[in-house]
Specification:
195 residues; alpha/beta; seven-stranded mixed beta sheet; 21% strand
Length: 195
């Protein structure tokens, strides 16, 4: 395939989870799929996949959501990378990030998993942490709420407008990584709030 990019949105399967904070990576992937006019269909890697191009002559984008739970994302991502012949440095993972304020995002390559079990499982399955990440800020839970409960709650109605802009920004950042590279994308998006 050569110049293909594998872009993975992390989350949990099913209607119960689709609007939760933990699934913000899949929400952003839906925005990207709409932009390239692609629909998700079942794939033999235990994933749903949408394929397309940003523009004629541009790189191929393989967008993927695992059919399994967040904590077991590694197997499907590794299988997709093998199937589409995509190296780790051309894999972009969109995921929720507790350590960033809700209205922000950051982009990085490699590094630790920061307690995020989806990232931990992907790094283990790929044998490297050196994939790209679009870290979508969901903020820390209020008061004494357990982070594990917080990430499985839907966004509040007051957050919906900001969320829509944040998802567009995450899709923009994913596109920029494929066309402009990591450094230019970081310079464009870091420190920028969506409001």
């Amino acid at each position: 395939m050569g110049d293909a990019w594998l872009i993975v949105g992390l989350g949990n399967p099913g209607a119960k989870y689709e609007a939760t904070r933990h699934n913000v990576g899949q929400m952003a992937l839906d925005v990207l799929a709409d932009r390239i006019g692609a629909k998700f269909t079942a794939h033999k890697t235990n994933s749903r996949v949408a394929e397309g191009f940003l523009r004629p002559g541009g790189p191929k984008m393989v967008l993927a959501k695992s059919n399994g739970y967040m904590n077991t994302s590694g197997g499907p991502v590794s299988a997709l990378a093998k199937y589409f012949d995509v190296p780790a440095e051309r894999i972009i993972v969109l995921h929720d990030e507790l350590d960033l304020p809700f209205d922000s995002l950051k982009v990085k390559q490699g590094g630790g998993h920061g307690g995020h079990n989806g990232l931990r499982d992907i790094a283990k399955a790929l044998g490297t942490p050196d994939f790209l990440r679009v870290r979508i800020g969901i903020g820390r839970p209020p008061g004494q709420q357990d982070p594990a409960d917080f990430v499985l709650k839907p966004f509040a109605s007051a957050e919906k407008d900001t969320l829509a802009v944040l998802l567009e920004d995450a899709a923009d950042a994913s596109e920029a990584l494929t066309t402009d590279g990591l450094l230019a994308t970081q310079q464009r998006f870091h420190g920028r709030a969506t409001r």
